[in-house]
Amino acid sequence: MRLRAEAIALLALAFAAPVAATPAEDASPVRYGKYDATGQASWYGHELAGRRTATGKRFDPDDVMIAHRTLPLESMVEVTDVDTGRAIVARVGDRGPGRADRVADLSLGAAKLLGTNRRAVAHIRVRALSAGSDRPGLILAGASAVPPVARPIALDPQARYRVQIASFSNQARARALALRFAARAIPAGRVWRVERAGMNADSAKALRDAAAEAGYDDARILHQD
User: Fold this and answer.
1) CA atoms of 174 and 168, how far apart (whole Å)
2) What's the rounded mean pLDDT across residues 113-135?
3) Per the database record, which ranges form the RlpA-like protein double-psi beta-barrel domain (predicted)?
4) Per-position b or e across 193-217, b if 16+ CB within 10 A of its CB
5) Residue 145 pLDDT > 70, yes or no?
């Protein structure tokens, strides 16, 4: 009986003793809605079209999505080009990237919308979005993180135009881009719009094309107010 009692006591001590956490258990999990990271990203396109993604869906290069190692599949993220300040909303549609020096991989569709498809590697910021977050309106993949500027218009050689190059929530970035294109940074509600006014049709088209070549594909020509 004494041996049996000692054995029971030892078992009780074993269950009561704290178990050391393994490295995997000790790692802090990603908190969806709080994730915010910057790093390098590349993009992938038609070479992987039709392959199964981690969600079970087949990869469509035109989808606005990213591959990420830990964020929940089918969750939404805000992706910002750190160099230009341009931002989009994308869906987490696959696992990756395979390279340790990448924070994410972009689909071709996401890279085009973000304006990074002309670069092999871009410096981006990835921020998780969740329902009820501080950005509840940004829920659709491909949505712009800043208000759209305008629809294309027919140009009259006799008229005068202004070109809206881009919109930023950051005043310093807006002013830097304005200086680059000899334009102005104009406050518009919660954002700053970079635009240049007093242009004829040919000059406006040339500026719009130069902005698009620099990665600002949403540059638009508007009638002079």
Assistant:
1) 6
2) 76
3) 37-125
4) bbbbbebbbeebeebbeebeebbbb
5) no
